[in-house]
């Protein structure tokens, strides 16, 4: 198709006995068949009449020369302005469209920020001083950037701010995104974290009627770039990111089964999981008071000492925790005599009471098939590599190196293979190097696949409810995946402890926005993910409509494009409405103009 021309089209509508006029930018395109088709490019909004003899619209315009807002009326270039109004004359034939950039996703991030009333909260906690830009706006920019296009504070002003519509949404220029300003904003956040957690809890109660009786608790790690010598929390430890070569910090998180985060903590990178739970129990009671709460945890987090303390000293605290499979063997004789009880289509359980606790042995056929398939896949890959080594490694030392690498990759599957290695000085042949699968050990492991052993002090709870609750631990795994993948919390480039903690706080706030959007989608548009909605709304673009005036200036009207029908339906479904078009401004010749798309 070939673009022929663009022009303004006027649409008239009678409403309450008054005529209203709406204008759009329309383009003519020549199709391959030779016909000319018209398409609406940009909706400019209403241009109403205050006098039927002349075309005009009262505008609040920011005059860059006088540095203030003023009321003007817009007239056709070939018509005289009435004497009773200040007016500007524009050259419609020289109209330009400048700076096309995504608007819809940035607006959605700012809208979620306002729905959680974080603008009001941070304006109170970060009052404006002598700075030209409010710190609350700087923080909003950091969080929305983390939600849409996560990256470092060094990257944000260079690569993301200008090609986005955040300048219009925040009502601020590039000064809001200065690198040093972003860093200094991080230094002001941490002291307000306890009050922030309480504010968010109340907002989720108000918006979604959230309940906080059942809590999920887990930990993950995130690694840092550089030596981080000025951060005492940065330590080498067990890396969930498979980066043992980097220092890391531990992030402990408490969320509800719906995904609402209640609290988090940044811990030393070498902190053992078993030493963290007691502090969190005290912290939650200190922040939100004593109440009946059920804690869901994976095995390896609570110690026997702590569980005994909970049963003895915390009558309102209950737990449901996974247990190592070695305990199945410990009580195997008691399990064998008990009947299976079916609680779901493919889930059966057995109950066993022991020392003020109930043990639940659960068997899931779906999980059993999955675990067996994963083990067999790893085992088959290991055997294939061992056969290749016998052909390609004539010497013993290279063979040992390759077996060590294969063992690391195979994980626990390596324990099901018996390997006979050649002695020193022997050549690698079928006689000196051979291997076989330990079938008895493999069959014994497959019999235990799909089995979970849970323990709880909820002695009167229905086992079906216990199983469903334990499966909700997948929600906290999804939260960590969101923080690491969608929100780019790793790697952390900061070297100071306070800025590492503040970086995690910004990611936590972005996760709160993501969770809020997720809850709206589940209620009004199930099947859509928050990331898919953000990508869809990026199709709503912001453009600067530039109209040269007869006095040598330019009238710039930022306008977002009209959403396509599917996007309009999506906004209607999630009960969100786009805001009014932003106010225009007068651009002086001294200001540097952005590259234009000339018509």
Outline of the structure:
This protein has 599 residues and is α+β, with helices and mostly antiparallel strands.
What does this structure look like?
Among the domains are: about 130 residues, no CATH class; about 140 residues, no CATH class. Helix content is about 35%, strand content about 25%. The strands form 4 sheets. Strands 10-9-8-11-12-18-15-14-13 form a 9-stranded mixed beta sheet, with helices on both faces. Strands 6-5-4-21-20-19-7-22 form an 8-stranded mixed beta sheet. A 3-stranded antiparallel beta sheet has the order 1-2-3, with no helix packed on it. Helix 12 runs antiparallel to helix 13. The longest helix is centred in the middle third of the chain and has 28 residues. It is globular and about 95 Å long.
Distance between the termini: 16 Å
Give a count of the beta strands, DSSP E runs of length 2 or more.
Answer: 22
Largest sheet: spatial strand order:
10-9-8-11-12-18-15-14-13
What can be said about the biggest beta sheet? 9 strands, mixed
Name the beta content range. Answer: 25-35%
Portion in helices: 25-40%
Mean pLDDT metric: 84
Structural class, judged by helices and strands?
A: alpha+beta
Number of helices: 19
Cα Rg: 32 Å
Shape: globular
Low-confidence stretches: 48-58, 74-85, 591-599
Question: What are the key terms here?
Answer:
single chain; alpha+beta; 9-stranded mixed beta sheet; 8-stranded mixed beta sheet
């Amino acid at each position: 198709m070939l673009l022929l021309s663009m022009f303004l089209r006027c649409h008239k509508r009678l409403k309450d006995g008054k005529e209203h006029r709406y204008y759009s930018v329309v383009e003519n395109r020549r199709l391959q068949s030779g016909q000319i088709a018209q398409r609406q490019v940009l909706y400019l909004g209403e241009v109403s009449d205050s006098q039927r003899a002349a075309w005009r619209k009262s505008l609040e315009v920011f005059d860059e020369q006088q540095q203030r807002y003023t009321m003007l009326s817009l007239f056709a270039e070939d018509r005289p302005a009435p004497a009773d109004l200040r007016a500007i004359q524009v050259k419609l034939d020289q109209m330009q469209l400048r700076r096309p950039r995504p608007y819809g996703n940035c607006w959605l991030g700012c809208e979620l920020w306002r729905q959680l009333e974080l603008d009001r909260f941070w304006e109170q906690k970060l009052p404006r001083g002598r700075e030209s830009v409010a710190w609350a706006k700087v923080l909003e920019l950091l969080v929305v950037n983390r939600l849409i296009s996560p990256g470092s504070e060094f990257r944000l002003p260079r690569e993301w701010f200008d090609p986005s519509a955040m300048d219009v949404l925040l009502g601020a220029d590039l000064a809001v995104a200065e690198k040093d300003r972003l860093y200094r904003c991080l230094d002001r956040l941490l002291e307000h974290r306890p009050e922030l957690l309480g504010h968010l809890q109340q907002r989720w109660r108000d918006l979604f009627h959230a309940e906080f009786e059942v809590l999920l608790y887990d930990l993950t790690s995130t690694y840092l770039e550089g030596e981080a010598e000025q951060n005492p929390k940065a330590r080498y430890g067990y890396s969930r990111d498979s980066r043992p070569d980097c220092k890391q910090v531990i992030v402990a998180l408490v969320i509800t089964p719906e995904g609402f985060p209640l609290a988090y903590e940044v811990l030393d990178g070498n902190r053992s999981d078993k030493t963290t739970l007691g502090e969190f129990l005290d912290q939650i009671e200190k922040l939100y008071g004593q109440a009946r709460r059920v804690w869901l945890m994976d095995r390896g987090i609570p110690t026997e000492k702590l569980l005994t303390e909970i049963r003895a000293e915390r009558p309102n605290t209950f737990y449901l925790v996974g247990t190592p499979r070695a305990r199945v063997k410990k009580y195997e004789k008691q399990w064998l005599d008990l009947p299976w009880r079916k609680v779901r289509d493919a889930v059966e359980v057995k109950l066993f009471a022991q020392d003020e606790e109930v043990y639940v042995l659960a068997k899931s056929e779906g999980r059993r098939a999955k675990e067996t398939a994963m083990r067999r896949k790893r085992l088959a890959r290991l055997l294939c590599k061992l056969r290749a080594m016998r052909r390609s490694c004539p010497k013993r030392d290279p063979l040992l190196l390759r077996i060590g690498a294969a063992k690391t990759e195979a994980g626990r599957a390596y324990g099901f293979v018996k390997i006979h290695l050649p002695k020193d000085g022997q050549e690698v042949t079928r006689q000196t190097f051979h291997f076989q699968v330990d079938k008895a050990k493999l069959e014994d492991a497959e019999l235990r696949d799909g089995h979970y052993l849970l323990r709880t002090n909820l002695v009167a709870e229905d086992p079906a409810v216990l199983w469903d609750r334990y499966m909700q631990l997948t929600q906290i795994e999804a939260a960590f995946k969101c923080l690491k993948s969608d929100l780019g919390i790793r790697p952390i480039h900061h070297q100071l402890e306070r800025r590492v903690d503040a970086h995690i706080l910004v990611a936590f706030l972005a996760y709160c926005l993501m969770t809020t959007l997720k809850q709206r989608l589940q209620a009004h548009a199930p099947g859509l993910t928050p990331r898919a909605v953000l990508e869809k709304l990026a199709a709503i673009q912001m453009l600067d409509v530039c109209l040269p005036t007869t006095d040598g200036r330019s009238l710039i009207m930022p306008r977002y494009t009209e959403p396509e029908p599917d996007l309009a339906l999506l906004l209607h479904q999630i009960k969100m409405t786009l805001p009014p078009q932003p106010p225009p401004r007068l651009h002086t010749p001294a200001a540097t103009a952005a590259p234009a798309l000339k018509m």
